[in-house]
Amino acid sequence: MKKLGLLGLTLLTALSLSACQSNSTQKSAASLTASKTTEQSTSSAPSHASTSSSAVTTTDETPDAILKRLITYTNEKSAGPTQNYYWNNGKAHLSGFETMKPADYHFAADEKGRSGIARAVLTFSEFEASKGARQGTPLDPPAWPKNSMTSIHFGLTNRTYHGFLYNRSHSIADSLLGKFSYRSQYNFTTGTRSQNVGADQNGGMRAAEELAENYWKTHENSDQTIQYQTTPLYNGSETIPRGSVVDEKSSDGKLDVEIVVINDAEGVSIDYNDGNEKTGTAEPSKAPETTQSSSSVATQDSSDNSAPATANGWTTAAQGMVFVSKSNKYYTAVVNPSNYQYVSLTKAQEMNANQGRSNAYAKN
């Protein structure tokens, strides 16, 4: 009887251990399956997030893909994915700098006589020397069209710009290259006002320029250099570029970026063969606007359509209108109008602007 009891106890213990081991194995297998599922989910999530981010902020497209995208945006009169007339296309893609030294620059026409690739090896001293005042007078780019007064309503800011449609847009800015940026007409393209400064004065070409400017502000008196390259992109034989690709890379690698700028204006139909506005709303100006600069901040009072007149190198405000500078001084005539806000005198006074003293670039 004792032997039977002992045998039963032994069998019971064995069955219990077997059940425990079975449960442990099943738990382990379940845990491994869950782990694999989690790993697959985690590994696919970044890929999805990366794709989503690329579509909105940063991409890495080829020149052909960029041009195709620019044609789509400009045909749609779109401000692009940032709503500010530019997007980030990843790291810089530079060429032609092998023999260039610090402070060297090169501007040339393309095979059709249009402004081609502009290159410069920028230095801090050029940036420093350009501070305070424009270093020259913008030149007419090839095929500079008849300029017109127009209206551009910006979706990003919900504000409307009234003024000249086009700027003589630097490929390499005054603020970066100083007086040397005026040495060739091939450093200028016909750019819309929005291509030049975007919807909020910090987009378009300004977005690219500010990246280099901000680098110098954190590397004062530095021996570093920036390889800076701007490539206008044209559709076939059109004379007005659909946009530009700006590549910039510092010698220490801290700055390494490619910015694509869109050359159009929301709500404005442009014929890129000759620059004419297709809509019937544009009013031809007596003379084209004479300015573009990386520091330009021109806007026009959206409630007033009084156009300024240009003669003998000076642009004179219409009666009751003035030009307001960044230092909050107002003038009745200026040499470079898009360095100023063009507003009514009443508006200037509301802004607490004071009458400025006449100088070589502005007068009362």
TrEMBL record:
* Keywords associated with the record: Signal
* Spans annotated as Disordered: 31-59, 270-311
Q: Which InterPro entries match?
A: DNA/RNA_non-sp_Endonuclease_sf, Endonuclea_NS_2
* Every Type VII secretion system protein EssD-like domain range: 155-250
Renumbered to this chain, the Low complexity biased-composition regions fall at 41-59, 290-306
Entry coiled-coil feature ranges: none
The residue ranges flagged as biased composition, category Polar residues, are 31-40
- Signal peptide location: 1-19
This protein is called Deoxyribonuclease
Please name the source species. Answer: Lactococcus hircilactis
